Amino acid sequence: MKFKLPNLISAVAIFAFVGNSYAQESPKYDYTEAFKPFFYPQTGTETRSASGQPGHKYWQNSADYQLNVSLNESNNELTGSAEITYTNNSPDQLGFLWLQLDQNLFAKDSRGNAVVPLSGSRNGAHGETFDGGYKIKSVKYDGKDVKYTVTDTRMQIDLPSDLKANGGVAKLKIEYSFLSPKYGSDRMGVEDTKNGKIFTLAQWYPRMCVYDDVMGWNTLPYLGASEFYLEYGTLSANITVPTNHYVVASGELLNEREVYSKEEINRWNEARKSDKTVMIHPESELGKGNQSGTKTWKFKIEKARDFAWASSSAFIIDAARINLPSGKKSLAISAYPVESAGDKAWGRSTEYTKAAIEHYSGKWFEYPYPAATNVAGNEGGMEYPGIVFCHRNSKGADLWGVTDHEFGHTWFPMIVGSNERVFAWMDEGFNTFINELSTEAFNKGEYYHKQDISKIGPFVQSDNFEQIMVGPDNMKERSIGVLAYFKPGVGLGILRETILGPEKFDKAFKTYVHRWAFKHPTPWDFFHTMENVSGEELNWFWRGWFMNKWKVDQAVKAVKPVNGDFKNGAQITVENIGQLPMPTIVLVTFKDGTTQTVKLPVEVWKRNTEWTFQIDSTKEVTNVKLDPQSIVPDINPKNNAWLN
Fold first, then answer.
1. Nearest to 501 by CA among 631, 604, 373, 386
2. In whole angstroms, what is the distance from residue 343 CA to residue 613 CA?
3. Do 542 and 463 belong to one domain?
4. 177 - beta bridge partners?
5. pLDDT digits (tens, 9 = 90+) for 128-145
6. Is the preceding omega at residue 413 within 30 degrees of 0, hence cis?
7. One GO molecular function term (predicted)?
8. Are the C-beta atoms of residues 38 and 223 closer than 8 Å to each other?
9. Residue 1: what pLDDT?
10. What is the CATH number of the domain that holds 634?
11. Do the domain assignments include residue 587?
12. In Å, how far are 267, 276, 299, 330 from 370, measured between CA atoms?
């Protein structure tokens, strides 16, 4: 999901905040607290190794779906059935199953509606009054009616007999309908255009809750702000829509000859061979063809945790080839209305999609799906396997940013399947971090602006924010952009540039992605992996940046000539004032304009609150400055320099 925070905060906002932030006092630095041992709550288990990788008996359950749905365009109603094959790979017998009914967020009496403040929220239906939520027609288990209970956005199904452990299979069929909200918590919706409605459909079928080795059943209700935690499997969908609609969806289209004309199929074949964007359904052909009846589009996606789709008579569609490191190919696709067209807007969407997918595939892990589709809807930005929804009015740098961000989510959490409902930072923060690298790489930095990390310290470490590890439903909505996206993204940048170095960081981070691809990691699995692969002790950083609200505040305390004369050298004293230590980089400038850089490892702060070192030089020191590259978010830059 995308929060509208360019560089997440503007310079004006930063400096306005800075004036109030220097007054915030850091707790006195306590090195025994910062570096105390026993950070990890448990040692390795059979399912999760202390090294950060899945244990030798790691397991997870799976869910395969056959989905059938029909769209009634006139009243925005969907009617469908979900046939679910659920495999219990756990060592536990299961007497009941839990499913998520996320559309129930839009029921009038939902918990999500109850927590929307009078001032409004981006979550929920933006005050729209309609009969929202699922209407369940039937629930069957192995072909027979079964007892079920719906509680807000969850359904519990009581099984007639326990589902066996280690491979027991349950077959469910649920028939349902619901009215789509026009604005569905910024994740789905219905958008009017001059050539017809655009339907962007997500959270549109009952989905299995995750049963794991950490919490058992994960059944937190869907309140709107927090996202999802889902099982992997194969999802197939038959989507019936008005004949004049074009449908794009997760995965591979299985029946293109039934839904596209011969000429359109030829264009698709051309796009599969082209690095340049090829028009599939151009503006000139909108409104042509049969305007009555229905048509069924069939899609399938494998190794996925969800399925989303979009349908409209207003879609212009274009595409281009995606080149993957293994030599395989995928397809970048864009679907948008004429109002969004143009080289300064969605006309470059496929170019952006292709570039993002190719970058992340080369850097971290190869893109696993046959297509990557960007859809212009009314969402600020929302991600699903193989398809994303971005706002139809986005253009230029904004369209690149949201496209790159949403497709970055393919890696977190579509490939690395963390629990978004609890740990939003493990998908949004990781994604914000990798977006910085991809934007720098795109088109020779066309939209890249290097952030001055030194200026954001007072903002990002403000006492007004909760801790990163607080879940999105448990923090102020205004805090989510900082705590789920920006602060963890900045933290990973600090870890890469200041603490580990790019080579060591990239190796560890890539190892994490490969270890946990299509699996369910926790924060501890990430922390363990980064430490084990890098070989560095990092508990002080996890403890301070993620678990607590510790502040970085280092200072130049004193600069003295040795024996009263700089010809004998200089002794420089730096101090760690804030509770979060950092490696310390000191730039010493001499009277003749030459400089010397001294790098102090974080270990100097393991038993000290201040540290004195000597510069062996015969030249007069005129300036001493901490963090000369502006890569550390110190809350008080005023004490970072000494002038002679």
1. 631
2. 57
3. yes
4. 79, 135
5. 899 999 999 999 999 999
6. yes
7. metallopeptidase activity
8. no
9. 86
10. 2.60.40.10
11. yes
12. 17, 18, 11, 5
Question: Does some domain include residue 331?
Answer: no
**Per residue in 45-101, pLDDT tens?**
999 999 999 999 999 999 999 999 999 999 999 999 999 999 999 999 999 999 999
Check whether residue 502 and residue 576 sit in a common domain: no
CA-to-CA separations, 520 to 9, 305, 339, in angstroms, rounded: 31, 11, 40
Confidence of residue 15 (pLDDT cuts 50, 70, 90): very low
- pLDDT at position 8 is 44
Quote the CA–CA distance of 106 and 128 in Å, as a whole number.
Answer: 9
**What letter would DSSP give residue 426?**
G
Mean pLDDT score, 260-279: 98
Helices in 392-501 by DSSP H: which ranges? 396-408, 428-441, 457-460, 480, 487-494
96, two tokens: 């009941």
State which of 525, 547, 569 marks the end of a domain: 547
Find tokens 């080839």 and name the residue.
Answer: 321
Sorted by sequence, the CB contacts under 8 Å of residue 327 that are 6+ apart come out as none
Q: What is d(CA 493, CA 495) in angstroms, rounded to the nearest whole number?
A: 5
With respect to residue 260, please indicate whether it lies within any of the assigned structural domains.
Answer: no
d(CA 268, CA 264): 6
The percent of residues in the chain predicted with pLDDT above 90, rounded, is 91
Contact 309, 238 (CB under 8 A): no
Q: How many whole angstroms separate alpha carbon 189 and alpha carbon 478?
A: 23
Q: Say what the pLDDT of residue 303 is.
A: 98
Distance from C-alpha of 266 to C-alpha of 351, rounded to nearest angstrom: 20
CA distance 401 to 414: 19
In a shared domain, residues 478 and 532: yes
Domain count, the chain: 2
Q: Are residues 610 and 540 in the same domain?
A: no
Q: Tokens standing for 610? A: 């201040």
d(CA 97, CA 149): 11
How far is it, in rounded angstroms, from Cα 104 to Cα 152? 6
562 and 518 in one domain?
A: no
492: Cβ–Cβ under 8 A, 6 or more apart, which residues? Answer: 429, 430, 433, 509
Task: Return the sign of the alpha-carbon dihedral for residues 615, 619, 623, 627.
Answer: negative
Please indicate, yes or no, whether residues 571 and 607 belong to a single structural domain of this protein.
Answer: yes
Q: Which residue has the tokens 């655009």?
A: 198
List strands edge to edge, sheet with 94-100: 148-151, 154-163, 94-100, 207-208
Name the domain boundary from 515, 547, 579: 547
Helix (H) or strand (E) holding 32: helix 31-34
Query: Does 626 lie in the same domain as 576?
Result: yes
In a domain, 364, yes or no: no
Q: For the ranges 16-20, 266-270, 463-467, which has the lowest average pLDDT?
A: 16-20
Of 594, 643, 586, 581, the C-alpha closest to 31 is: 581
To which residue do tokens 């994303």 refer?
Answer: 388
Same domain, 532 and 578: no
Inter-residue contact 360 to 411 (CB < 8 Å): yes
Residues of the domain holding 639:
554-643
Report angle CA 331, 337, 342 to the nearest 5 degrees: 80
The CATH number assigned to the domain holding 486 equals 1.10.390
CA–CA dist 635, 459 (Å, integer) = 8
